[in-house]
Specification:
Elements: E1 6-13, H1 20-28, E2 46-51, E3 55-61, H2 71-84, E4 89-95, H3 102-111, E5 118-123, H4 130-141, E6 148-151, H5 163-168, H6 188-204, E7 213-221, E8 227-235, H7 238-245, H8 250-267, E9 271-279, H9 287-292
Parallel strand pairs: 1-3, 1-4, 4-5, 5-6, 8-9
Antiparallel strand pairs: 2-3, 7-8
């Protein structure tokens, strides 16, 4: 490895639904974070690795920074803040199609506490006119001294290809932290659970927005080389359980069918997916329940 090789950590931060996870997947050219049009889809720190012959960037996708309404929200904000303390550069992702206001000022207040360089990424430029883009960009520039500003559409890929080279300029010399063929360090159980939760969000739309958690309870290789996967979908109320299952179990079957395809593409093997739905009342507001479902510890 060349003595001029650079490596480091870059945190993706921003408000909920700014497009951080979509941008991460674009940057590493793999699906390592689930995507939904619902705010606060990302609940944990998701790691994605981009490796080239001259640098390795370890991206940390974080939950959207917001004012917490329950213990899960408090945990998510703590995850985002903790990520800021361990990186070499911050990528501040802003949904530029939305008028900036107090939410962005809250995040900029956090950025002002940092000593690392911050790159402003204006996302969703395909949804806004040039006049609005310029005015909203000025609002943000007037409040923080960004090292660089880039306009992109993470969904369409516009402007994303140049971002790694820009980030490279702010990385310190260093070795590869991960092997070149690694794109994430997330355990398979975690990724599978997230893919199932993604399909629950897609299929139920606005009916069960954030009261869902998924836990993989069993993985077993069957004699026919098919991987048996059992997962429990937790909700907070009986009514939500009925929504997910649907009439005659049709909605749960749809979730299972779509999640199975995603997991098979991830693992490169056939699976048998068995989904169950259980109620854990008000789990987002209970510390013990959060820990049992994989949240609550940094």
């Amino acid at each position: 490895m060349s003595a001029s090789y650079r490596s480091g950590f870059a945190a993706l931060i921003g408000r909920p639904n700014a497009g951080k996870s979509t941008l991460l997947n674009r940057l590493v050219c793999h699906k390592v974070a689930i995507i939904s049009d619902k705010p606060q889809t990302t609940r944990n720190k998701i790691l994605g690795v981009l490796t080239t012959d001259t640098y390795q960037i370890v991206f940390l996708d974080t939950p959207g920074m917001h004012k917490p309404q329950h213990q899960l929200g408090d945990y998510m904000v703590k995850v985002a803040r903790a990520a800021l303390a361990e990186v070499d550069v911050v990528i501040y992702v802003v949904d530029i199609a939305v008028e900036p206001g107090r939410g962005e000022e809250y995040i900029i207040d956090e950025l002002n506490k940092l000593s690392v360089p911050v790159i402003l990424v204006l996302n969703k430029v395909d949804l806004v006119g040039q006049d609005e883009l310029g005015r909203r960009e000025q609002f943000l520039r007037a409040r923080f001294n960004f090292k660089a500003v880039r306009a992109v559409s993470a969904l369409e890929g516009t402007g994303v290809a140049d971002l790694p080279e820009l980030i490279y300029e702010y990385l310190p010399p260093g070795p590869q932290y991960y092997p070149a063929d690694i794109v994430t360090d997330q355990p398979e159980r975690f990724v599978m659970a997230e893919l199932i939760r993604e399909q629950v969000l897609q299929v139920t739309r606005e009916e069960v927005p954030h009261a869902v958690a998924v836990v993989i309870t069993e993985l077993a290789r069957r004699p026919n080389d098919c991987l048996y996967v059992e997962a429990v979908i937790y909700v907070e109320r009986e009514s939500q359980k009925g929504i997910i299952i649907g009439q005659g179990g049709l909605r749960l079957k749809e979730v299972g069918s779509q999640a199975r395809r995603e997991i098979e593409a991830l693992l490169g093997t056939k699976i048998f997916l068995n989904l169950r739905v259980r109620v854990k009342k008000n789990w987002r507001r209970q510390e013990l329940a959060l820990r049992q479902l994989g949240y609550g510890e940094l």
